[in-house]
């Protein structure tokens, strides 16, 4: 029987960056490469050294790095028609990049050979063979990516396979079947890979794209048919609809199909890996992303919640902890008492389990949700509400007033100013700030009023701001719900505000984001002047 | 051979709303239902009438509607253990909802029967049979959803199938196999459905969830094995990781596998349907969404672009026009002139067909879209832009300045006042108004400044106001897009504004909504005093 190990080939840094709106600096790429290595990827494709100076700089940087496990691969194409491999600048660049693994793509669809390359089918075989031989002669591990293999096979199976054989005979270490246009279906992939496996001795890989929303399924089908390497990207980023999402492929292979990809411990880092890459690439992660999304193990309906608390298997396909995610219970209109108590527990709010108190709290939450609050996406505000209900929240400041002034004339861009007056332990802080919108100005003025008393707020920043108009039929007089996400040292929390006035709703969410952090950190107001003196005193010792 | 038609069962309005952060008003649901019907869905599941008043209100509203093709279905469960079907309030609510199709779910996993329902396997069969019989006796079409069927089958195949048979024998019109936890793999689904098909005469459906990123593949596998109904949601929204995405399932079935789902013409509306539902639900559509995403047929790399322009088949798995999407070339601007002229024609803007002028216009529109404008949902603003480009727009007023003042103190609800200074034919109109938010105050002040000169504006009102935050990572300093819908005498039009400042974006959309009406009606400014005298004069005749 064949080996149970599936080799992971990550191309986030090369094919992933072909995705619209995705752009990574050299340092971003280095950071991601280190993380991919820690996670246990076998190959990390870093870029196309012939194509741009940024990719070349990445390979230079990686020469200094010592990786635990992964090998860095450089990507390129075969030599061009009627050019000898050792005279091809593109192949030379692969060698010069200093990597030990080169991945080159070549045509395996006859239509592409004659229409795009404008050469003969025989010359294409020569290009593949010579290129592989040249790289092997220079001591590299060579992976041959057969571009458009599945479309090519459907059009001319014999020729498509002859291309693979040319690579094999020239000494390629891997041959990878690419569904470049992403339009193949899982059973086609299974049938074709099954037919190819017995014809070759070299191990096969699969490179799938997601144009049919089938990249993960196509990858699994190829593995089931005998492929042993998976090419894909973290979070499935990539050109058009993206590449096969390794974040979904890996747990399916390892936890459901019994293959071995990475250590159990590393698999437990999957959710963090996914979020880390999203953070560096500045992409927003969909909440409903399979396996690692925020909602992937979130339960809403009352029936589901009570069942899942009794036996998680009833509504979960696997244990979230295996991949570093966690179960969440959503509080919503549908919720009951078991949701609330589970939630209190999860949020670390010690909640009195007296029936009357929790019934009151459910009533309050339902009233607020009826008014338009939504605590599913704003768990920090829910924690505050629960803490208030138990009388355990110590309010560290209160609003005296705020004022906003905006002015617009045709010549000038709009001016937004905010004034905020707060009472902090009896001391009035009165500040003003500008911003590039009313909420931004308010945010600046609020922090300015607080930051001397609460230095920990300095590291906090807002990371997301969402507005949802409720009862849209009412147009500009409608109620709005504002959701704000804040972050500090990599930890995130979300808050909500509701009002017919967008500014008031934003203010409520802004204040909650601050109150939550102050509670969580157990902050108390510091006297800014005294603090200054103390610091001097300590420095003098 | 079996029928080639696959029946589409849309549950966007029921299972879709279980998705985290998704909340639809009754009117939202009605709008979506009408659109789903136009698209050609066979069944539209509207909600669970027993569970909350909002769903009941939806079914009441739908009684007034005349649909083209679809049948509205109501969702519920079987009767409870030891309760007769005709005494079960939940089943009665299905009948009272006035629909002709009832979908009830029942347990088909023995573990759930004994652990969650706390009853016997036989009593569960009784509940399924009696519930189906009761609904059939009341003249309904009955669809039985076998919850957790695949997990149940793996645990106890004989019992799982006996549940399906109980539904069949009681007269169910459809039996639907649900992968409730979303953890099944495509070949498991294929194998199990293939085993079940010969055991039943009733047609089968498939209901898949996306927890393994395999919902589309699992759905296709079930159809390939003999199922004839697909349950899913638009854009795959739903609990946890969502349901099978009909927007991907339909083109795979119809264009790749040769099944028949909707008419060719309706399939061409797929992209619009997807975006419409996203808009109403206020979800941001991922650019890389398969088939319908903005990037789904976008070509970035130089090699791809030149090849795809010679022969689209080289880098596209299908023609984007078949599903109403379009090819985009991200580096250069090649497409569009014919689109633009067609659009101008459609919008009744007489547009000079001189090449240079239309190229300028394409460039301008692309620039504005790059800045964040979106003209698909704001055709009135697009008309104004085109009219400006041709120099045919007569501006009837201009802004001198506006100011907004807001004040908040703990005792009082927030005060919002706006002052607007306009120049109308050289006459300065300076007005002030309050509102229950800054935009509402601005709207009031703007109309007050205009209405004496332009009496037709009196009948105009705003019907919708939407805010979308672009570049969400920037939080409160992010760009926002405001969409406003206005109406007058039953006619509606939409406008757009974009700015980092929400007030400025709203102002832009507000002003466009007025400018559009004035242009459309061919208004000219009237001198308010003279108008008053004339009216008196006419009245005296």
TrEMBL record, chains A, B:
The keyword Heme does not apply. GO terms for biological process: isoleucine biosynthetic process; L-leucine biosynthetic process. It catalyses: pyruvate + acetyl-CoA + H2O = (3R)-citramalate + CoA + H(+). It comes from the Bacteria. Its EC number is 2.3.3.21. Pfam families: HCS_D2, HMGL-like, LeuA_dimer. InterPro entries: 2-isopropylmalate_synth_dimer, AIPM/Hcit_synth_CS, Aldolase_TIM, Citramal_synthase, LeuA/HCS_post-cat, LeuA_allosteric_dom_sf, PYR_CT. Pathway: Amino-acid biosynthesis; L-isoleucine biosynthesis; 2-oxobutanoate from pyruvate: step 1/3. GO terms for molecular function: (R)-citramalate synthase activity; 2-isopropylmalate synthase activity. Residues 6-268 form the Pyruvate carboxyltransferase domain. PROSITE patterns: AIPM_HOMOCIT_SYNTH_1, PYR_CT. Keywords: Amino-acid biosynthesis, Branched-chain amino acid biosynthesis, Isoleucine biosynthesis, Transferase. CDD domains: DRE_TIM_LeuA3. NCBIfam families: citramal_synth. Belongs to the alpha-IPM synthase/homocitrate synthase family. This is Citramalate synthase. It comes from Brevibacillus fluminis. The lineage of its organism: Bacteria, Bacillati, Bacillota, Bacilli, Bacillales.
């Amino acid at each position: 029987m064949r080996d149970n190990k599936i080799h992971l080939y990550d191309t986030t840094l090369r094919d992933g960056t072909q995705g619209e709106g995705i752009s990574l600096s050299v340092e971003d790429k280095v950071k991601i490469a280190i993380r991919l290595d820690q996670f246990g990827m076998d190959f990390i494709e870093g870029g196309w050294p012939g194509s741009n100076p940024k990719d070349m700089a990445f390979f230079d940087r990686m020469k200094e790095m010592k990786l635990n496990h992964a090998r860095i691969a450089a990507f390129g194409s075969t030599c061009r028609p009627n050019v000898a491999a050792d005279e091809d600048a593109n192949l030379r660049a692969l060698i010069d990049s200093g990597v030990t693994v080169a991945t080159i793509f070549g045509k395996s669809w006859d239509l592409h050979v004659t229409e795009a390359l404008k050469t003969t089918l025989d010359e294409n075989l020569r290009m593949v063979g010579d290129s592989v031989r040249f790289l092997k002669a220079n001591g590299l591990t060579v992976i041959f990516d057969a571009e458009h293999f599945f479309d090519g096979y459907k059009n001319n199976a014999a020729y498509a396979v002859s291309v693979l054989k040319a690579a094999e005979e020239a000494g390629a270490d891997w041959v990878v079947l690419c569904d470049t246009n992403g339009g193949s279906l899982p059973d086609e992939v299974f049938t074709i890979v099954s037919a190819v496996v017995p014809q070759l001795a070299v191990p096969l890989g699969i490179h799938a794209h997601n144009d049919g929303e089938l990249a993960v399924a196509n990858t699994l089908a190829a593995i089931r048919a005998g492929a042993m390497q998976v090419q894909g990207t973290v979070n499935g980023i990539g050109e058009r609809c993206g590449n096969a999402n390794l974040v979904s492929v890996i747990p399916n292979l390892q936890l459901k199909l019994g293959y071995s990809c990475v250590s159990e411990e590393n698999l437990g880092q999957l959710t963090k890996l996914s979020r880390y890459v999203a953070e560096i690439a500045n992409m927003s992660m969909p909440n409903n992303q399979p396996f690692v999304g925020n909602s992937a193990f979130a339960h809403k309906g009352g029936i589901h919640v009570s069942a899942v608390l009794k036996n998680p298997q009833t509504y979960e396909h696997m244990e979230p902890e295996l991949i570093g995610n966690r179960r969440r219970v959503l509080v919503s209109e549908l919720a009951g008492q078991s949701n609330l108590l589970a939630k209190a527990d999860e949020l670390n709010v010690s909640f009195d389990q007296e029936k009357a108190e929790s019934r009151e709290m459910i009533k309050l939450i339902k009233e607020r949700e009826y008014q338009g609050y939504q605590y599913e996406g704003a768990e920090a505000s829910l924690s505050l509400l629960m803490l208030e209900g138990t009388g355990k929240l110590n309010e560290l400041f209160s609003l005296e007033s705020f004022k906003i002034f905006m002015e617009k004339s045709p010549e000038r861009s709009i001016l937004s100013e905010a004034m905020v007056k707060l009472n902090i332990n009896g001391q009035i802080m009165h500040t003003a700030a500008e911003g590039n919108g009313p909420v931004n100005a308010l945010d600046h003025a609020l922090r300015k009023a607080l930051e001397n008393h609460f230095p920990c707020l300095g590291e906090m920043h807002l990371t997301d701001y969402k507005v949802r108009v409720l009862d849209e039929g009412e147009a500009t007089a409608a109620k709005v719900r504002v959701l704000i996400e804040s972050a500090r040292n990599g930890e995130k929390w979300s808050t909500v505000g509701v009002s017919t006035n967008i500014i008031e709703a934003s203010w409520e969410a802004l204040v909650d984001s601050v109150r939550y952090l102050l509670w969580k950190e157990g902050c108390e107001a510091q006297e800014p002047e005294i603090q200054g003196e103390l610091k001097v005193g300590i420095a003098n010792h």
